[in-house]
Amino acid sequence: MKEADHQQVINELQAIIDNTQRTIERFEATGMNVQMPEDYDKLLAILDGAVKQQRDHTMAMLDASKPALKQDYSPNLS
Questions:
Q1: Selection from 32, 59, 55 nearest residue 44 by Cα
Q2: Positive or negative, the Cα torsion across 18, 15, 65, 1?
Q3: How far apart are alpha carbons 29 and 23 in whole angstroms?
Q4: Cα-flanking dihedrals φ and ψ of residue 31, to 5°?
Q5: How would you classify residue 4: left for phi > 0, otherwise alpha for psi between -120 and 50, otherwise beta?
């Protein structure tokens, strides 16, 4: 994947994270986390999965840029 592709996925995952966090907050505010614990656990699993995927894409994007950074910033020893 190219850097732009990783960034697009990271941005889309951030939207999922934000929406899921808002839903979890509403669940907790209305006591649904107690009334519907299975659904609450599914929301937590969605959040956890999205955060992990976002981290993976961020690390992949950073790893892909490492050779360019080394090449751009290596000292000229000649």
A1: 32
A2: positive
A3: 10
A4: 75, 10
A5: alpha
Token reading at 27 = 């669940």
**DSSP character at residue 30:** T
**pLDDT of the chain, 78 residues: tens digit per residue:** 888 898 999 999 999 999 999 999 999 999 999 999 999 999 999 999 999 999 999 999 888 877 655 555 555 565
| d(C-alpha 60, C-alpha 75), whole Å | 25
Looking up tokens 């929301």 gives: 43
Asked if residues 13 and 47 have their Cβ atoms less than 8 Å apart, the reply is: no
Instruction: Give me the phi and psi of 25, to 5 degrees please.
Output: -60, -40
